[in-house]
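Lecture 7, part 2: worked example. A protein chain together with 2-methylbenzoic acid.
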Amino acid sequence: NFDYPDRLNAAVELTDAMVARGFGDHTALIGNGRRRTYKELSDWTNRLAHVLVDDLGVKPGNRVLIRSANNPAMVACWLAATKAGAVVVNTMPMLRAGELAGIVDKAEVSHALCDTRLMDEMTACAKSSGFLTSVVGFDGTSNHDAELDRLALEKPVQFEAVATAQDDVALLGFTSGTTGDAKATMHFHRDLLIIADGYAREVLGVVPEDVFVGSPPLAFTFGLGGLAIFPLRFGAAATLLETASPPNMIEIIEKYRATVCFTAPTAYRAMLAAMEEGADLSSLRAAVSAGETLPAPVYAEWQEKTGKPMLDGIGATEMLHIFVTNRFDDHRAACTGKPVRGYEARVIDADGAEVARGTVGRLAVRGPTGCRYLADTRQASYVQDGWNITGDSFSMDADGYLHFAARNDDMIISSGYNIAGPEVEAALLSHPAVAECAVIGAPDPRRGAIVEAHIVLNNEHIGGDILIKALQEHVKAAIAPYKYPRSVVFRDALPKTATGKIQRFALRERP
Ligand code: 3SK
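Predicted complex, written out as structure tokens:
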């Protein structure tokens, strides 16, 4: 049971309420080389909320976009906008103007708060948008050297947060569908607390002494939960890294004796290698792996080297966070575990009937959070009879443990990033040399999968290393650079059905 008052503002619960509960002097955020206590975070977010309401005219329900890498200022902006009753849209720092414009238009974003270092693409986006009324820069390095920071310094540290209802929308989480056509998932104020009071409390047993570290962007709900909501809900500390490469994470783990890590298997593999070189990860008590399948050897090696289990889990932006997971006292290799408290899971066939134990089918879940797409006809296929159909194939064994089989759709999951093949195809097709293309995920031992483009060239063009490089740069300039095809294969023709549809499965079936 998750019991919250009717009037509930999640940001107040994570800041002012923590101060009232005696955590004022505890470290809340670590980043940009300094620590901030809960009291400082509460004051900072109240000042920022004043700017949003008094100077920028943000009204409850307005959509506020935040563009930043993971840093304390991004967390503060998110909390401030939530205190002001806005609906926050967190975005990844690598997005280009065209991608930002798609989000702004879909979410009808009225205000954008942008790290000044990332302003160029934001400004370009603003020029083409009919919705944005203001774009304000903040200093992501926390030197308070940008417009938003300067305005905030003049404001009082008390702010009467908007008394939102527990089921008012607080967050729009964007996720790319298989078509690359982004979907926005709406999450209530209470949902932000449920993921902490469910998963983080029940599975991780978070305590105020915990120090969190990890790599997922705060713009991905996996990161927002794991690196902001979970620590702040329990008086713990969050370390925020703008570049969360494995070496940077290791440095932070060693320096701050971090106890809880959220990242993908690729990074854990690199951390295991670093342990061979003497890296000290002994402070970690919880290693959460999600976002891509955890290979059994990584799970086994982690257990062997640290003596602690790696907790594999599955979540979805639609569900907000992890809903099936292993536990400290109940974990197995090549197994995703059992539902988190409050959630139920079934494996069903195409007609919605439960399949026999051990049989692979579609994973369906229901619980206190669930999919609510913003104005999207795909809602009807994602939620059927109250069950969320996740798009993953699983089997459930005789003891009720869930085992991942495959992703049902065309998403490519590379190093924890979800990349929609059709979006990369569209970028490639805008290059004059490309006549036709099909993008698939190719297996890769380090990244899980890489983006592989199969390309038919226009007549006058000849394939080769120079053209491959040019195509890769072309994609990087058009869309977020991590989506570029690491592998390019030139072909005379693409396999097609009689009706002319490209048969991507034929490309995936490698000899
Ligand atoms: O695995 C995922 O894709 C995911 C998405 C949102 C939140 C949490 C997770 C693990």
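The pocket of 2-methylbenzoic acid is lined by residues 221-222, 290-291, 314-317, 321-322 (CB under 6 Å). The chain has a mean pLDDT of 93. Keep this in mind for problem set question 3.
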